[in-house]
Amino acid sequence: MTEAARRSPGTPCWVSLMVHGIEATQEFYRALFGWDFVPGPQALGPYVRALLGGREVAGIGQLPPDRHLNIAWTTYLATQDADETAESIRCCGGTVAVGPLDAGEAGRMVICADPTGAVFGVWQAEAHHGTALAGPPGTPVWNELLTYETATVGKFYRTVFGYDVEPVVSAADFDYATLHVEGRPVASLHGVGEELPRDRGPHWMTYFEVDDTDAAARLVVELGGQVLRPPRDGTAGRLALVADLEGAVFTLVRSRDR
After folding, report:
1. Which residues contact 189 (CB under 8 A, 6 or more apart)?
2. How large is the greatest C-alpha to C-alpha distance in the chain, in angstroms?
3. Distance between CA 126 and CA 106 in Å, rounded?
4. Are 57 and 132 contacting, i.e. CB atoms less than 8 angstroms apart?
């Protein structure tokens, strides 16, 4: 279990979702994860913070009606200087789509993409340090980049954020690497080649902890979502790939160490 503090650069610190139906989305995640919601910051439009036991775990914002973007959970990586990081992203072949800009007094943010097109956020914390709880059911517990191959994109993230990138050598056809900050694993890269969904391409994936993966997957369907990959056992625990009401994809996991 972890609590909010100012994160070291490169550490995933927040996950956020932009949708068209913010009320319906809140009801979906309230029923699935037991989240409560409080407003703010509103500097960039309607936005709510999801709480679990009174602690912030994620954010959900409202897209303008005329914005037809891919609905997806966005992983935010911590930085001490959003402007400097944005410039580094550009210099290393990535793109900056939004910002850097202030989100009220909460902090300074950037929405960007790596050279393969995978979207992620950058967060310079001020009043808001990010996810205040990770580990219990209903909290984000891991972030993974699904990409074509890890070697090239790994250099991008290492240069921009200073990660130690450690490839996992277990099989010739398994392309996987772990990103470390100050000796701690904080995220992973998974090269899946042509297995990437054509409609999404390279993308960051958020894993949310649950008590029972099978029951949570069934609940997703009852609430109007979809199960894209049925529950299965993996090295991290029991996993299921699902999508919410508007198609945002995420992974349910019952971790092995729970």
Report:
1. 144, 145, 147, 150, 153, 154, 157, 165, 176, 177, 178, 179
2. 48
3. 5
4. yes
Say yes or no to pLDDT of 2 above 80: no
Q: Is the peptide bond before 41 cis (omega within 30 degrees of 0)?
A: yes
Instruction: Supply 196's token pair.
Output: 């990437």
Whether the pTM exceeds 0.90: the reply is yes
Amino acid at site 77: L
Cα separation, 15 vs 41, whole angstroms: 15
- pLDDT digit string, tens, across residues 212-251: 999 999 999 999 999 999 999 988 899 999 999 999 999 9
Q: C-alpha distances in angstroms, 92 versus 138, 146, 191, 208, 212? A: 35, 19, 20, 31, 41
Cβ pair 196, 202 in contact under 8 A:
yes
